[in-house]
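Worked Example 4.2. Consider the chain below.
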Amino acid sequence: MLNPPTPPALDEFGGWQTPAGPWTGGACNDGPCVAVAYGPDGWVAVTDTKIPGGAVLTFTADEWSDFRKAIVGNTI
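Applying the procedure from the previous section yields the following structure tokens:
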């Protein structure tokens, strides 16, 4: 396996945004469950708003695009 790219530091990402989508309803009765921050070179960071200071997943631009397509296409 090739070495995966190293994401930028979280302080290089913009502010957290809570986009509309399937993750903002259902089990997320108190509001959005997902927050997204956009970073340099197309990087995207995602976190669970119900766990402040919790884990952050980072995606390259291509990974984020594939992830979104899988969600919209209901293949994930």
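The chain has one helix and three strands. The radius of gyration is 13 Å. Compare this with Example 4.1 before moving on.
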